[in-house]
Amino acid sequence: MAKHSKERTQAEAQFKRTQKAQRATESEQAMADYVAAGHAVRAKTARLKELRLAKEAADKKGRTKQGTKSK
Question: 3-state secondary structure string, the chain?
């Protein structure tokens, strides 16, 4: 009976170590995904801002040309 208890204790300890390692790996992956998503959002935001500013500049330039031609 003591042998069974010792084997069970060792198996449970191994299981806990495995679970701990798996949680660590999953948390590292989750953090990497979180960081990558943040970079993607910032890159998309910067690209959209550049497009918006270019459009606003073109619209403003078009309005000034239109305003000078009509006078």
Answer: CHHHHHHHHHHHHHHHHHHHHHHHHHHHHHHHHHHHHHHHHHHHHHHHHHHHHHHHHHHHHHHHHHHHHHC
> Using one digit for the tens of pLDDT, what is the confidence trace for 22-44?
999 999 999 999 999 999 999 99
The whole-model pTM stands at 0.62
- Residue 55: other Cβ atoms inside 10 A: 10
First vs last C-alpha separation in the chain = 104
